[in-house]
Amino acid sequence: MNTQLNPITGANLNPKKKESSLWSFIKTLIYAVLIALLIRTFAYEPFNIPTKSMVPTLLDGDYIFVSKFAYGYSGYSFPFFTLPIEGRFLSSPPERGDVIVFRLPKDGKTDYIKRLIGLPGDEIQVKNGILFINNQAVKREKVEDYIETSPTGVNYRYSQYIETLPNNRQHFIIERSDTHVPFDRDPLVPAPFNTADNTPVYKVPAGHYFMMGDNRDNSADSRVLSQVGYIPERNLIGKAQLRFFSLRDGASIWQVWLWFSKIRTERLFTVIH
Question: Which domains does the chain possess?
């Protein structure tokens, strides 16, 4: 079939050709959305970190990929809605020490990220800032202090440790209550940090997990039963595996014009431990 052109403008006068091109574009767009949805549901989902509860492992402004297939799938695996189904499919149990995104049991809507500390049946307690698992103190080793710079430019120094869990998984934690020394102001001025350095014994129920933040004195986690508490297996979303981007000072990934001055290049494409 010959294509008809406007003799003056050269425009295509074949309406079927225009409809075909438009439909092809729409189909391509639909396929792209479906592929993205499938990847986010069954493979990897991106998240950004808005708080300091997992410092020093994760900083506010980090962007991470979470493996959706690491622990199998549940009704909470879908990124934009929840299916009313119980249990998990293709399930694989998490390991102590994993950094996990989960759905908050309190409302079933909010995504949290913490480290898995207690398995079903474990007894967890914190005494004088020391983590105890099944009545055994978890080994921790003092390392160089963690330095945090506030938005106003004040530098703070906090005690930092390497904690070794019973399965020999190691990670960094910070204890704000151990040391609170601003470089440029009176170190005797107390800081208004909420701490949970002394807790009752928590008995982790069957089918549940106990989560804690690495920023031990600045984390609402399973120690706060009324807010977070024990996390049902069904609420696990996935395992945090990779930092792919990071911006400081509250900059958003959409603010491209701020990337040059705000990007943390040392954190790009780094593995999460």
Answer: 37-271 (2.10.109.10)
